[in-house]
Amino acid sequence: MPTQRHSFSSIGLMGFGAFGRLMAQHLQPHLPLVVFDPARAPEADGSGKGLAPGGIAQVAACDIVILAVPVDRLPEAIASLRPHLRAGAIVLDVGSVKIEPARLLLAELPDDVEIIGTHPLFGPQSARRGIAGLKLALCPIRGDSFRRIAAFLRHVLKLDVILTTPDAHDRDMAMVQGLTHLVAKILVRMEPMPRRMTTKSFELLMQATEMVRHDAPGVFLAIERANPHARAVRERFFSYAEELTEALERGHRISPTSAINTPAVSDSAIGECLRID
Average model confidence (pLDDT) for the chain? Predict the structure, then answer.
């Protein structure tokens, strides 16, 4: 059983990519932050907020340890941290999927370590004006400290915290993120896009594409391949797209909610409607 801590004095952060840096920006005013990333070693922060580079052992010795690494690097990160973790430490991941990370963390971490799965439902692009009011999914996996973590996230960082389970999270994200990133990838391939003669709906679609355009390739792969529910959603989407294409080729009316089997208005009738006297 985990040994519950009554107070927290430090945060260890493994990973200092775009999202790791975003977290550091919002966490370091509250607790000393030790960061390890062999590819992006941070410089010590001289502002007095306490951000400092450290090794794996120093990160693992903190009260709260955050794994900000790609989902496919999670086994390696867990293996490196495991020998150094203190009893009662709280380990969080911030990945875009939750079922497999939860399984890995439960299987590989010592029984006296608490585990929380989190997924901030935002990134550097959507957090440019601050994170207050943005959503974060939180999955309690082992231990009771998730209540204090959730309270901090809600009341101090002003996030909208959604308590959920790994399976419920992945089911929703298969639709929410899976389709968003899939459509964005396709739209990027179709560029150049019109920039002047546009509608508001098209502009919003382009804004959504821009918000995920520069995500690391591993993010897209995690969303589409590491989420066990993503494939069914993807296949359903392309099935409907194919159905729409066939209906258009056959000249059938397209219904927004039901089967596509009604003959469409004839070309001559359309021409009559569009005729300008």
Answer: 89
pLDDT, tens only, 36-73: 998 887 776 655 557 899 999 999 999 999 999 999 99
User: What is the pTM assigned to this prediction?
Assistant: 0.85
CA-CA-CA-CA dihedral for 195, 197, 199, 205, to nearest 10: -20
Determine contact, residues 78/55, Cβ cutoff 8 Å: no
pLDDT above 90: percentage of residues in the chain: 76
Query: Is the CB of residue 81 less than 8 Å from the CB of residue 56?
Result: yes
DSSP for the chain, written as a single string: -----S----EEEE--SHHHHHHHHHHTTTS-EEEE-TTSPPPPPTTSS-EEE--HHHHHTSSEEEE-S-GGGHHHHHHHHGGGPPTT-EEEE--S--HHHHHHHHHHS-TTSEEEEEEES--TTTTTT--TT-EEEEEEEESSTHHHHHHHHHHTS--EEEE--HHHHHHHHHHHHHHHHHHHHHHHHTPSPPSSS--HHHHHHHHHHHHHHTS-HHHHHIIIIISTTHHHHHHHHHHHHHHHHHHHHHTEE--SSS-S-EEPPPHHHHHHHH---
Distance (Å, rounded) from C-alpha 244 to C-alpha 259?
A: 10
Looking at residues 105-127, what average pLDDT do you find? 96
